[in-house]
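User: For my dataset I need records formatted as: sequence, then structure tokens, nothing else. Please produce one.
Assistant:
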Amino acid sequence: MADAVTSQTIQDTDRKAIMRFTNVSDGSGESAVKKVDVSALSANSSGQACTSVSIAKIWWMTVGMSVKLEFDASTNVLLTHIPSDATGDEYYDSFTGIPNNAGSGVTGDIDLTTVGHSSGDAYHIILEMVKNY
């Protein structure tokens, strides 16, 4: 079997993308799963493709497991580690947001890895992102 996961794009405009992710684990977990694929986001009104995103806000709820959000690259770079059994939010929109600082092989995408997952554990994460071109 596999974890029951969903991904939903709530908003995708020239400037901003908001996405929601859920998981109810069967114990198998997720490892470096691409959750934000910048090539799948809409182009801006000038026709430019999105090449990366900066994180403006994060809302989360975890039960049992913790979750690592990572910038995808040859060696992924940790964006943040959301603790287990927690609810919270972080806001980075009073400045430019958290930019993608991944090095070699950077794709602009965001991956997710669950840590300490067991059957019945869950997460709910919402990301508000500023699109870069």
